[in-house]
Every structure is written in structure tokens, then in C-alpha cells.
Write a structure and sequence with these properties.
Blueprint lengths: L1 E6 L28 H10 L7 E6 L3 H9 L8 E6 L5 H16 L4 E6 L3 E2 L2 H15 L4 E6 L10 E11 L2 E8 L4 H10 L2 E11 H11 L1 H12 L2 E5 L2 E5 L2 H4 L7 H6 L5 E6 L3 E2 L4 H5 L10 E9 L5 E12 L4 E6 L2 E6 L6 H11 L9 E4 L2 E8 L3 E8 L7 E3 L3 E9 L2 E5 L2 E5 L4 E4 L5 E4 L6 E9 L8 E4 L6
Helix pairs in contact: 3-6, 3-7, 6-7
């Protein structure tokens, strides 16, 4: 049985302002309307012999991830989740997934570890590469995928393969892993022919990777096992959800699978392949997904150009005009605008660092924020009032909660709401409203079959999202 493991996390700082800490790169929607996460899951599901898909992600992104998968109607295998409270890199993520797969399917279950934020365009070639990797993995090898380099890239790690040591059809022994090289060294690697880009994808049996972890990093594996044993596990017909123990997860080493295992093990093989791979690591890489006009401009959304060349624009709400400029990247979102030299897009993460140091929410949240029950959008934010548009999914409910510092007016503009306000409970219909005084316990619920849309006007001396006391919550939030 093949068990794809989708690793979904990270901050995606190089793709700000679309990627934010609470809405990272895997959730970024491309021009075709699908997110990178959806594409990764669908690509994994389409492989032959898939019996289950395991997704490793942050606990705060769990419901958003399920919503993304729910839009993929073709998914017909169990979907399991390993939920982290803090990121611990790829080695613990693979170890936790191996424990889940071994418990459910045995030590011979084959894991295929895939980052959620990469793209693969040639699915037929990808299937061939996976078949080769699976065959070698069943012999006890840890298999990595190497992308045949098309240019002397300095932003990728490299793998030197031993072309004289085949370990299966289309697979070779790994001679060494190489860090990101200088431009001169990268040219040497490409010219030599024995180097491939490290794609960060792996294939192995659950038993083999656990055995090798125990051999090379036993302390890491022991801490993972301890955390797994202390975690909350819920099993359903649709899969298993493992909520990792926060206390025990903090004791697990933060380390990549490359450093922890692949560079130490003697059982490592590589499958060189040409699968139309991209790690979508910058706005330059994103722009290459679109066709260019005669002047080299690539447009996603609404933009007009005059005597402009070599520019990339993403603006899906407002109209952007470019006049007499060249080689710019312009990315417009409702609350933040990026304008960058096309040759300097790798430095976008420095802006995110500055925002974080300033305590500005634009590093973390979009104006529209996803919650397990739906979304809210901040329409206006002033010193003593805030206006939100709140959308609640059918059958969903917010927590029973209270605010110390603000009161709220709720105006229903679509659908019907069931409202708890202090000691009373009522139904509020479209074009009706209610008032929630500060200090009142309250809850909003959508009992209907269509989306509930509400305008909320907050008023008070403090309007932060942390002014909330939850008494009951069906989503398990504190």
C-alpha cells in the first residue's frame, strides 16, 4: 500500500503578501483557482495503489486544510492528519507519519513524503519516478528524488549520485548531499552530469525509516515515540487524527530529515527524474507559471500596461496600471501591496521580518481570516470601533464566549442566525439585528442550509482578537 504524506506548513515569507503566517504558502491560490495544497493532494491521490493520505500540519490550520480537501470531490481514500502545535521540521514529521502508517497498515506500508507547496507538471513522468522509488523502497532503501538540473541554480541543495552504482531500475546510490552552492560551483555541478537538485521528496517503508532513525538518531525517535504515546488520537472511518501533545512536542528536536538521516544512512538511493518540478520559492517562480505578452509582462488578475516590459502583476480585486517601468513584481492584496525589483524578490522575507518586529498584523493575517466555522473580513478598523463581515457555514457555530472590553451590534444580511445572548436564546432573521453588551456570554450559530452573512460592529476601548473568553467550543480551541 502506498501512503502519501503531505507536509503542509511553513511561513512562506518569500511570497508575502499573499502568504502569511496564518495563511501560509500551501494555501496560496494559483491563477487556475486551486491552491498548492489542493494540487499536492490531488496529485498524490491520482497515483496508483494509494490507500490513505496523511497530512502533517499545524493544529491551527487543520480546519482550513479540511475545507481545502472538501473541495476535491474525487478524494475517495481515508484522510489522516498529524497536528502539530509548533513546527519541528521534516524529520519528526516523517517519524510521526511512519508511526501512524505502521499502526494502521504494518511496517511494510510505503510512505511517499511530498511537500505541499511544490508543483509537478508532468504527472505521467511523476508516476514513473514514483514506481521506481517504490520498488527500491520495498528493498529497504530510503529513496530521494533528484531533479535533473536545467540551470546552475544556487537556491537548491544538490545530490551527487554514483552513476556506477545502480540500485534498481532508474535509481542510484547517493554519493553525498551538497548544500546550496556558489554560482561557480553550481555551474560545475550542472556540467558534471552526476548532480541533481534535491527535491525534498522521499520514499521508504514505515519500518525502514523507523529502523534507520533508531540507528542514527535514537534520542530523536524516542522523543517522537514518547510524544506520540501522550497524544490524543481519534479514529474514524475517514481516517485518524493525531493531536500531538504540546508539552512533549516541545522536547522533540527541530531537525530536517536530510540532516537527521539522509546524510548519515548508508541505505540511501536517488531516482533522477524530469517531472516538470518547481518549488514555487519566489514571485519569480510564480510568474513563470503564466504566459508572457510580447513585452514579457505576465498578468494575473486586473492590470493595464503602457510601455512596460518584463513585469509580473497579481491583482485580483483592484485595477493596477503600469506605465514606463520594467522588471517589476507587483502583488496587490486588500491590505498590503508589494512592489519589488524582479531581481530582488528573494529579499521579500526581510519585509515580513520588519512587520513582525513592528507587531503589525500584516505578517500574520489577511483582512479575511479563516476560522473553523467560516470567515470574517475586517471592513474598517478605527481606534474605538471595528466593522466586520462575518460568514458562517451551514450548521456551524462560533464558541460560547464573552468579551470584557467591547460590545457588539449584529446585523443579519443573509440567512438566519440562532443567537445566545446572556440568558436568552433567539432566532434573528435577515434584516434584523441584536445587541451584545460587554460581559455577556454569547454565541452565534447558523441553523440553516445556506451561508449566514452578518455585519458586526464592535465598540469599546480595546478591540483585539485576544479579548475573548471561551466557555464551550465544538472545535476544541482553548
Amino acid at each position: 500500500m502506498l501512503i502519501p504524506v503531505v507536509l503542509s506548513g511553513g511561513a512562506g515569507t518569500r511570497l508575502w503578501p499573499v502568504s502569511r503566517q496564518s495563511h501560509p504558502k500551501p494555501f496560496m491560490r494559483l491563477a487556475d483557482g486551486f491552491s498548492l495544497l489542493q494540487k499536492a493532494c490531488a496529485r498524490a491521490h491520482a497515483l496508483e495503489g494509494v490507500g490513505e493520505i496523511i497530512t502533517v500540519t499545524n493544529r491551527e490550520l487543520y480546519f482550513k486544510t479540511r475545507d481545502e480537501y472538501r473541495e476535491l470531490s474525487e478524494l475517495d481514500v481515508p484522510l489522516s492528519f498529524v497536528l502539530e502545535t509548533v513546527g519541528r521540521n521534516t524529520a519528526p514529521a516523517v517519524a510521526f507519519s511512519a508511526l501512524v502508517a505502521q499502526a494502521r497498515h504494518g511496517a511494510d506500508a510505503v510512505l511517499l513524503v511530498l511537500p505541499a507547496d511544490h508543483l509537478i507538471h508532468d504527472h505521467a513522468a511523476f508516476q514513473v519516478a514514483v514506481d521506481r522509488a517504490v520498488a527500491v523502497a520495498r528493498e529497504g532503501q530510503l529513496v530521494t528524488f533528484g531533479i535533473r538540473p536545467t540551470a546552475p541554480e544556487t537556491g537548491f541543495g544538490y545530490i551527487e549520485l554514483d552513476s556506477n552504482a545502480p540500485v534498481g531500475d532508474g535509481a542510484f546510490a547517493v554519493h553525498r548531499f551538497v548544500e546550496k552552492p556558489t554560482a561557480e560551483r553550481a555551474c560545475e555541478y550542472v556540467a558534471g552530469g552526476n548532480y541533481v537538485w534535491n527535491a525534498g521528496m522521499f520514499c521508504c517503508t514505515a519500518g525502514a525509516v523507523l529502523d534507520e532513525l533508531d540507528r542514527h538518531v535514537p534520542e530523536l525517535l524516542q522523543s517522537v515515540r514518547t510524544c506520540y504515546a501522550a497524544s490524543r488520537l481519534a479514529t474514524e472511518s475517514t481516517g485518524v487524527t493525531v493531536e500531538l501533545s504540546h508539552e512533549h512536542l516541545l522536547a522533540v528536536q527541530d531537525i530536517s530529515i536530510d540532516y537527521a538521516l539522509m546524510e548519515r544512512s548508508t541505505k540511501v538511493a536517488v531516482v533522477p527524474c524530469e517531472i516538470g518540478w518547481s518549488d514555487i520559492g519566489s514571485w519569480g517562480a510564480v510568474s513563470e507559471l503564466l504566459s508572457a505578452d510580447d513585452a514579457g509582462n505576465r498578468i494575473d488578475g486586473h492590470a493595464l500596461v503602457h510601455e512596460a516590459s518584463g513585469c509580473y502583476v497579481q491583482s485580483r480585486e483592484r485595477v493596477v496600471g503600469l506605465v514606463g517601468v520594467r522588471d517589476l513584481v507587483v502583488v496587490d492584496t486588500p491590505d498590503a501591496l508589494l512592489v519589488a525589483d524582479r531581481g530582488k524578490v528573494q529579499a521579500v522575507k526581510s519585509i515580513v521580518g520588519q512587520l513582525k518586529n513592528l507587531g503589525h498584523e500584516a505578517y500574520n493575517l489577511h483582512r479575511t481570516v479563516h476560522r473553523p466555522w467560516g470567515t470574517y473580513t475586517v471592513l474598517e478598523d478605527a481606534s474605538r470601533y471595528k466593522i466586520k463581515r462575518i460568514e458562517v457555514k451551514p450548521g456551524a457555530a462560533l464558541s460560547l464566549q464573552m468579551h470584557y472590553h467591547r460590545s457588539e451590534h449584529w446585523i443579519i444580511v443573509a440567512g438566519m442566525a440562532r443567537v445566545v445572548n446572556g440568558d436568552s436564546e433567539m432566532l434573528v432573521n435577515t434584516n434584523e439585528s441584536t445587541y451584545i453588551p460587554a460581559g455577556h456570554k454569547h454565541r452565534l450559530e447558523n441553523p440553516g442550509k445556506v451561508d449566514l452573512v452578518m455585519i458586526e460592529v464592535q465598540s469599546g476601548d480595546y478591540l483585539g482578537e485576544d479579548d475573548i473568553v471561551r466557555f464551550e467550543d465544538v472545535y476544541g480551541r482553548a
